[in-house]
Design a protein that fits this description.
Helices cover about 45% and strands about 5% of the residues. It has about 170 residues and is mainly α.
Length: about 170
């Protein structure tokens, strides 16, 4: 938040997110001046995406249909939505063994239609790093994924420890 030359407090997207995380809905903050680049009209949908799914008769959806509907509502900036995640991850590889492992894992992620998930995880890691949010070293079967290691989701080099990605992507 910054103060303009008139002494008014101007909130940016990060400030609005902080207020939401504190339990306040931005539409309830009367008199709040928000940077024009923040579109508050999308916030009710972000905070309560269920009505869209209810219109699709959520109770009649099969599990795969429900998962597909959920996966179509990623909330991330356009630059991450357009990111060629496979090219990005392969570009992080430093040797042939890393290229081979990432290539094999990326095929498994692609078979499961999880590239949007990888894009979102890249966005999440970037946001956490930018805001100096500390996250764990790694947990559960996800540490078996070398791709997640390269993105920065965890800090366990599964290639070094010879962990089988099949433990994660069953």
């Amino acid at each position: 938040m910054i103060q303009n030359k008139f002494g008014e407090m101007i909130f940016d997207e990060s400030d609005v997110c902080d207020l939401v995380m504190q339990g306040r809905h931005p539409m309830d903050l009367a008199g709040m001046i928000v940077d024009a680049s923040v579109d508050l009209t999308t916030w009710p949908d972000i905070l309560n995406p269920v009505p869209d799914l209810q219109q699709q008769r959520i109770h009649n959806l099969s599990v795969p249909e429900f998962h597909k509907a959920q996966q179509s509502t990623w909330r991330m900036p356009e630059q991450y939505q357009q990111l060629d995640i496979a090219e990005y991850i392969l570009g992080l590889c430093q040797n042939e063994a890393e290229l081979q492992r990432c290539g094999a894992e990326l095929l498994l992620y692609q078979e499961r239609d999880l590239f949007d998930l990888l894009r979102y995880l890249k966005y999440l890691v970037d946001v956490m790093a930018q805001n100096q949010i500390i996250w764990g070293v790694g947990r559960g079967s996800s540490v078996a994924s070398f791709v997640l290691y390269k993105i920065g989701v965890h800090r366990i080099n599964s290639l070094y420890y010879n962990l089988d990605v099949g433990e994660f992507l069953r």
